[in-house]
Write a structure and sequence with these properties.
Layout (H helix, E strand, L loop, with lengths): L8 E5 L2 E5 L41 E4 L11 E7 L4 H16 L4 E7 L12 H12 L6 E4 L4 H10 L6 E5 L5 E5 L4 H25 L5
Parallel strand pairs: 4-5, 5-6
Antiparallel strand pairs: 1-2, 3-6, 4-7, 7-8
Length: 217
Amino acid sequence: MCGFSRSSVLFLSAGALVAAISLAPLVSSTARADEKAGTRPGVVQPSKLVVGSPAPEFFPSKWVKGEPVKSFQPGRIYVIEFWATWCPPCKESIPHLTEIQKQFKDNVTIIGMASSERVAKNGQDDRFAKVSQFVKAQGDKMNYTIAFEADRKISKAWMGAAGVNGIPAAFVVGADGKIAWIGDPREPAFEATLKQAVEALGADKKTGETTSDPKKR
């Protein structure tokens, strides 16, 4: 992991969120990614982001790949994964995230949020171009939505508020719009959480269909 993060595990049940969080240091080669930014004027963001908290605002300045996500739609699960082109563990996560997106495409939207790109040593700000070129070169190997920001506002509202200062870092937003899991997407708990969330979502939909259909009452 590039930097230091923490992991948490969520167990979801249909129609309710039951979370159990475990914090543990993740030992690996690190490269610190400072996250300094603000939020949209007039918007109150949570001072502490934990499992069960409402998901903060999410308005990337630019979209690199995929359809822009204008809001978190109720009934759909989202993954916001913070990454950078210079981060080896982030690159390691790409194939897995692509596979996860393919596996859960009907219920889950994965967004790779590039918030930690670095300005060139000569002072030239080519960060967006660098991310765009990287994503284009990956092709179908990186087959999920990608967004970019230069001011790190989103990073501050999510990673900063959660006390996470290393990447890759993933935030699972449940179908109810609340944070369901926070941690390294390479951890087994990440995929397990998504599977449970999708299963719970399916159970909720099935219950709703049964209730609304007079023939099934």
